[in-house]
Amino acid sequence: MDAQVRIEQAMDQLSRNLQRAKEDPQAVLEGKFSGTSPSGAVTVWVDSLGRVDHIRIEPDAFSSGGEKFIMDEFMAANSSARRAAENLEFEDTGAGSRTTTTGEAEQYDEVPQSFLESGY
């Protein structure tokens, strides 16, 4: 890819992000962005700076695969969530509960239950 094309794409993305930030600056400050692994076993929520806020690992994920599987799933979910944060891809559901996957955060009452708290 030509350097000029990459620069133009970056400028377009910056322009879109600036517009979103102007529309809802509180969402940028308090927004949560999620990413889910390809198998759906791991979901990661990050803040607008890409820092991990919390993680949800499906209980059956531990029996489905080993340590490498969980690690790969986490890395994929984390990358997806960070991309969403970089692009300010949030829903219009109110500041502080913005996610890229519809309804995920709402079903966990702000913070997902851990495996031990879930009663499985």
From TrEMBL:
Domain of life: Bacteria
Region span, Disordered: 87-120
Cross-referenced InterPro entries: YbaB-like_sf, YbaB/EbfC
Pfam entry (one): YbaB_DNA_bd
Entry protein name: YbaB/EbfC family DNA-binding protein
Organism, scientific name: Saccharopolyspora taberi
